[in-house]
Amino acid sequence: MLKPRAILTLFILILLLSPLLLPTYQITLLNYIGLYALVVLGLVLLTGVGGMTSFGQAAFVGLGAYASAYLTTTEQLPDWLAWAGHSPWLALLVGIALTAVVALILGALTLRLSGHYLPLGTIAWGISLYYLFGTVEQLGGHTGVSNLPVISLFGIALDKGEKMFYLIWAVLLLAIVITQNLLNSREGRAIRALKGGQLMAEAMGVNTFRSKLVIFLISALFAAVSGWLYAHTQRFINPTPFGLSMGIDYLFMALIGGVASVWGALVGAGVLTMLKQWLQDLLPHLLGSDGQYETIIFGLLIIAVMHRSPGGLWPILMRFIPVKLKSRQLLQEDGPAVRLDQRRPPRQGDLILEAQQVTRRFGGLIANNNMSLQVHAGEIVALIGPNGAGKSTMFNQLSAVDTPTSGEVRFLGQSLKGKSSREVAAMGMSRTFQHVKLLPGMTVLENVAIGAHLRGERGVLSAALRLERAEEQSLLQEARYQLQRVGLGDYLYEEAGSLALGQQRILEIARALCADPCLLLLDEPAAGLRFKEKQALAELLQKLRGEGMAILLVEHDMDFVMGLVDRIVVMEFGEKIAEGLPQDIQTNPAVLEAYLGGAE
Ligand SMILES: Nc1ncnc2c1ncn2[C@@H]1O[C@H](COP(=O)(O)OP(=O)(O)OP(=O)(O)O)[C@@H](O)[C@H]1O
């Protein structure tokens, strides 16, 4: 079994030797693969990891290319830009700044769009920027800009493809490392939660819009740097490679390579570039040179690959490479970690949560009517009621996922009016979900670590450069501790999706505990648990109560509830019909009526 590091070293060695062994023509091809892969890497992050489809990446490539072309070839630059003239490196800085500004504006405008509107938005700005490149006179119109200077590095002029090769591939490898570092960090977990876990992530305190903007920005910057490298490799540019058709090609490369993997970017760029070249050489011999047959065959091949392997080629390739690159390796302890700071717990008996006459209407339907309840520190309260009684709706009002039509929820003395579920999480409320919400492909440990999101503060940059290792170790140690506490210590490195449903519910409790809350909202925690697991859960909740935690749970399992909780609030048709000690509720006629239809 080969170690990933050995494969990487071999790969770098082959790269280093390539310009010495391969003919120029092939080096040119490899340069293109490197340039494309850099753009596709951004798409893997944006589309594969973040779940946002962009057809407009080629426009960002154009921004990087044109910024540098303009600055390095224009004789008389405006005074305020003169400092950046004639040096490709300074032009790169300007290109990066320009792309960042454009990406932030476009991202702010389009990333809030949902469904098909986002891809349509990317097509719109992709086309707009393309026409801009062709229209602006200073950018050479459709003729383009020629005579770009060569890049010099440490006094060496990179005037040949063989020399640019080293720069292109070094930048690409650096970008891959940065991306991988980022994905294996606190910010990375938040980013990975974007696809399929946004509601959960927000409840854990993640600002999902910010995470989207971050990957949008990074992918735009990768594209712009690729554009800069392209411009100074070709030393001539025109708008053609920055149009929508290239934007679609980049997306295809990501899909073919494997949109969920960083290395898939390289595979996708490599396979598609080689294939296109090969078809362009081969088909004219077979079919004549009249039609663009390669485009048709190319399209059919893409459909075939997508059909056979929707995850792209990388997962197939991994089956043949004798290497086990599991996130386990990335999560190993570096040594003892500092324990995270803890919130000062409220005093036993303090009022933690209070709902005052909460009403929630959905059109004509009143899901919650005049509901009031209280939860104190060191108390377990159950919210019960028949199906459709309005318990989940109430939970959503209490955790600021939804806003009451009238009435008020107060948490730790503060009204939740106008607060987001993220802010409420930061105040110390943490929850689990009726329908388990976790990221099935991620390890149990990483899933739980998302709960500790608000307890870390190191940002994207330190994650990309691995400067946040101490904090990361503390976050993972906390996740490990909470998993051991709930009895899932043996499953740290399993994929969360492989756990039984009952264990997934327990995982959600560990995740909620990771946030160091003073109030736990548990939505049907015992559903799907076996008897022994229920006993263990009850013990855990009792222990937490002993430590002063306030717990509110919705539960259908009456045996579990009666033996555990201090007080019960019963709902029917959106209203509170009873409240009291378990033994009183068990004999309450209104409750018996609601549950058993009037049986005594
Ligand atoms: N977003 C919504 N729009 C319209 N109606 C809704 C919405 N959410 C809930 N309801 C309705 O409100 C009522 C209460 O639903 P809710 O899910 O809160 O009940 P519940 O007590 O949690 O039920 P269960 O035990 O089956 O989960 C139901 O009639 C439901 O159809």
Automatic annotation (TrEMBL):
A Pfam entry, by short name: BPD_transp_2
Transmembrane region(s): 33-51, 58-77, 89-109, 116-133, 165-183, 213-231, 251-275, 295-317
Membrane topology, as annotated: Multi-pass membrane protein
CDD domains: ABC_Mj1267_LivG_branched (cd03219), TM_PBP1_LivM_like (cd06581)
Keywords for this protein: ATP-binding, Cell membrane, Membrane, Nucleotide-binding, Transmembrane, Transmembrane helix, Transport
Residue ranges occupied by any ABC transporter domain in the UniProt entry: 353-598
Localization of this protein: Cell inner membrane
SUPFAM superfamilies: P-loop containing nucleoside triphosphate hydrolases
Family matches, as InterPro entries: AAA+_ATPase, ABC_AA/LPS_Transport, ABC_transp_permease, ABC_transporter-like_ATP-bd, BCA_ABC_TP_C, LivM-like, P-loop_NTPase
PANTHER family on file: ABC TRANSPORTER ATP-BINDING PROTEIN (PTHR45772:SF2), CONSERVED COMPONENT OF ABC TRANSPORTER FOR NATURAL AMINO ACIDS-RELATED (PTHR45772)
Name of the molecule in the record: ABC transporter domain-containing protein
Lineage: Bacteria, Pseudomonadati, Pseudomonadota, Gammaproteobacteria, Oceanospirillales
